[in-house]
Design a protein that fits this description.
Largest sheet of chain B: none
Distance between the termini of chain B: 61 Å
Oligomer: heterotrimer
Strand content of chain B: under 5%
Strand content of chain C: under 5%
Mean pLDDT of chain B: 86
Bound molecules: adenosine-5'-diphosphate, magnesium ion
Radius of gyration of chain B: 22 Å
Number of strands of chain B: 0
Number of helices of chain C: 8
Shape of chain B: flat
CATH topology of chain B: MetI-like fold
Order of helices and strands of chain B: HHHHHHHH
Helix content of chain B: over 70%
Chains: A alpha/beta (240), B mainly alpha (221), C mainly alpha (220)
Number of domains of chain B: 1
Low-confidence stretches of chain B: 4-8
CATH class of chain C: Mainly Alpha
Largest sheet of chain C: none
Number of domains of chain C: 1
CATH architecture of chain C: Orthogonal Bundle
Helix content of chain C: over 70%
CATH superfamily of chain B: MetI-like
Low-confidence stretches of chain C: none
CATH class of chain B: Mainly Alpha
Shape of chain C: globular
Number of strands of chain C: 0
CATH architecture of chain B: Orthogonal Bundle
Mean pLDDT of chain C: 92
Radius of gyration of chain C: 21 Å
Order of helices and strands of chain C: HHHHHHHH
Number of helices of chain B: 8
Structural class of chain C: mainly alpha
Chain lengths: 240, 221, 220
């Protein structure tokens, strides 16, 4: 379980996260929505320790992420992450993209790592692209590759940062479909997204961020039906 | 004249003048070579771009030779070959000829790159506006391509300026040769080399920075 | 046409020695490139990531290597250091001079290469649990190497051409050896003509090998 208490994040003088309290239970799917610049990506980076924090704390399975001497590399194996820019490693084949981290981070031998890669790539529908270089894939395929790459670490949580925002419209569906599949398999997920349909249909709860504050959180029916905050209502009126 | 006791024994103020004159000769020979070489280099580059069969069969390999053989070897060869042809060239003239050919060989590539950078579509657009081939070259290809490769050309020019130090092997007293002469006389290698280095640096550094700045500005324009 | 008689026989007699000297040229150039690449990586990383005196030293190195003649740099390692009682052998002078020069030019190429890799690559690697070192070695540097591959190849050619300056500091690599033979026989033109051909062949071999290697190395 992920427990966030009083999280404060500054970039220099810029106050980006202003005291966030948030629990994510095992098996839960949380969607995070909000305007650009409201601090959604930063929240994810604080959860897996890619950004330092200036106040409060983040615990993953009882382990303090930002404690001195915390083994971040170990922790990040638990927290798979998929970014907005599909940043596959262009110099490695699709299979190597997925097998590399299991080999050098988890210490698996080449054969075991390759097998995991094959399995995860088949899982996201890229079983026939093992020897291809990412440059030859479409954006949607590259994003599914990124998902497989994260899954190969056998994480307990998946963090998605606008995984579909940079895709051409006709490619969004295949990636959302893959995310939905993961959710149905019981993966714990935090999805920063602009896909309101996905947020409504797939998530257990939806959190709305506004200028570094989590203004509102609740089941989709509440957020999309009877939002309390005028900011939430305004935001939703604009995206729809 | 009574010699004041100097910390740098043997190095006299007049030697500074000697070095300055030598620096001027460095500028002279490289300026001349760069001008002539650039002129021919652009013509060669254009011939290569036009891709006439004979150009790629004759010109390209010849230019390639000048880029694949050390300049110092070219200088020695030419200096010793000219008399065989019955030409009596002094070190300065030999230096200018070889440095200019060398410059042309390097500029040819740069120039061709520049014309290619303009791209077919833009040129076709220009032609479709009714411009003639020459108008297109004059008003579209040269200005746009020139911008694209100006920094590269500055790199070539500065390279030639520095390489002009090699003409010293023919006995032409440019900056580095002058330093050598002074070092032999004064036994002050460190001081004299520092002065010579400062001359080169003062010539090259500001220009290369300026080119880099232009490149950045144009890249963002 | 010429009233000059070419004498190629002495050159042909000494050809094996010249070719051997050509190998020495290749050796010193390769060594300078290997050292130069390692130093250039350091210089580039320092210039990108550090402030203070180290950055200042790296910048000075790069600017002096790029803004003064290579021959000047050789002289500096030759009699310039002699002023401090440090007398290098001709081999060491050429190696030091070439290394200094190559490192300076390559550092700028590498710096551009590092800057061309999006920061998101590093983030993605770290998010998979790779250490910073692993991410650099496995993800960033291989991509940088591809970007700088052609500049590095060109620099190798430059290193070979530049090593000819060894002849001016008493080093008997290809040019020095040629000068030695030429001054002994006075067939200056013939000797240097053959040497020019040898340089040309060396350069072509390097470019060919580089192309071959690239086709095996870079599949993407
Ligand atoms: N590395 C950074 N340095 C400085 N400011 C940053 C950095 N990353 C993000 N920010 C700023 O923090 C704020 C929140 O950014 P972000 O978390 O990316 O928002 P969102 O993902 O909701 O669009 C923005 O104002 C952004 O400009
Ligand atoms: Mg974001």
């Amino acid at each position: 379980m992920i427990e966030i208490r009083g999280l404060q994040k500054y970039f220099g003088a810029l106050h980006v996260l202003k005291g966030i309290d948030l629990d994510v239970e095992k098996g839960e799917v949380l969607s995070v929505i909000g305007a650009s610049g409201s601090g959604k990506s930063t929240l994810l980076y604080c959860i897996n320790g890619l950004e330092e924090i200036q106040g409060g704390q983040v615990e993953v399975d009882g382990q303090n992420v930002h404690a001195k001497g915390a083994d971040l590399n170990k922790l990040r194996q638990k927290l798979g992450m998929v970014f907005q820019q599909w940043n596959s490693f262009p110099h490695l084949t699709v299979q190597e993209n997925v097998a590399l981290a299991p080999r050098i981070v988890r210490g698996l031998d080449r054969k075991a790592a390759d097998e995991i890669a094959e399995r995860q790539l088949a899982h996201v529908g890229l079983g026939d692209k093992l020897r291809v270089y990412p440059g030859a894939l479409s954006g949607g395929q590259q994003q599914r590759l990124a998902i497989a790459r994260a899954l190969a670490m056998e994480p307990d949580y998946m963090l998605f940062d606008e995984a579909t925002s940079a895709l051409d419209p006709e490619l969004v569906g295949e990636v959302l479909e893959t995310m939905r599949m993961l959710a149905e398999e019981g993966m714990t997920m935090i999805c920063v997204t602009h896909e309101m349909g996905f947020a409504r249909d797939v998530s257990d709860r939806v959190a709305f961020f506004h200028q570094g504050v989590m203004e509102e959180i609740g089941p989709p029916s509440q957020i999309f039906g009877e939002a309390q905050s005028p900011h939430t209502r305004g935001f939703l009126a604009n995206v729809r | 004249m009574s010699q004041p006791i100097s910390f740098f024994s043997g190095f006299q103020p007049s030697d500074l003048l000697f070095l300055a004159e030598a620096a001027w000769r460095t500028l002279l020979i490289s300026g001349l070579a760069i001008s002539i070489g650039t002129f021919f280099g652009i013509i060669f580059g254009w011939l290569l771009y036009e891709g006439r069969i004979w150009a790629s069969l004759t010109l390209a390999p010849v230019l390639d030779i000048f880029r694949s053989v050390p300049l110092i070897i070219q200088l020695v060869l030419f200096y010793n070959f000219a008399p065989i042809l019955g030409l009596n060239l002094d070190p300065f003239a030999s230096g200018v000829v070889i440095l200019a050919i060398y410059t042309a060989a390097l500029v040819a590539n740069v120039a061709r790159g520049g014309i290619e950078a303009v791209g077919q579509p833009m040129r076709r657009a220009a032609r479709s506006l009714g411009m003639s081939y020459w108008q297109d070259l004059r008003y579209v290809a040269l200005p746009i391509g020139g911008r694209a490769v100006f920094p590269a050309w500055v790199g070539v020019a500065l390279g030639v300026m520095k390489d002009s130090a090699l003409v010293s092997v023919l006995g032409y007293v440019e900056l580095l040769k002058a330093s050598q002469i002074l070092i032999t006389r004064t036994q002050e290698p460190f001081l004299i080399l520092s002065i010579a280095g400062a001359f080169y640096f003062a010539l090259s550094y500001p220009i290369s920075r300026y080119a880099a700045r232009l490149e950045q500005r144009w890249a963002h324009a | 046409m010429f009233d000059y008689n070419f004498h190629w026989r002495p050159v042909m007699r000494d050809l094996p020695d010249l070719i051997e000297a050509g190998l020495l040229t290749l050796q010193v150039a390769s060594l300078a490139m290997i050292l130069g690449i390692l130093i250039a990586l350091g210089l580039a990383l320092i210039r990108l990531n550090m402030r203070g005196p180290l950055n200042w030293i790296a910048t000075t190195w790069v600017e002096f290597a790029r803004n003064t003649p290579a021959l000047f740099q050789l002289f500096f390692f030759g009699f310039g250091l002699g002023a401090f009682g440090l007398h290098l052998s001709p081999y060491a002078i050429v190696l030091a001079g070439l290394t200094f020069n190559c490192a300076g030019y390559l550092a700028e190429n590498f710096r551009g290469g590092f800057q061309a890799i999006p920061e998101t690559q590093m983030r993605a690697a770290r998010s998979l649990g790779m250490t910073a070192t692993q991410a650099y070695l496995r993800i960033v540097i291989p991509q940088v190497l591809r970007i700088v591959y052609h500049p590095v190849t060109n620099q190798m050619v430059w290193a070979v051409l530049m090593s000819s300056l060894g002849m001016l500091v008493g080093f008997r690599e290809l040019s020095g050896e040629t000068q030695f033979f030429a001054s002994r026989t006075f067939r200056i033109f013939e000797y240097f003509a053959v040497t020019a051909v040898i340089y040309y062949v060396i350069v072509k071999i390097i470019l060919g090998a580089s192309r071959l290697l690239a086709s095996r190395l870079f599949r993407y």
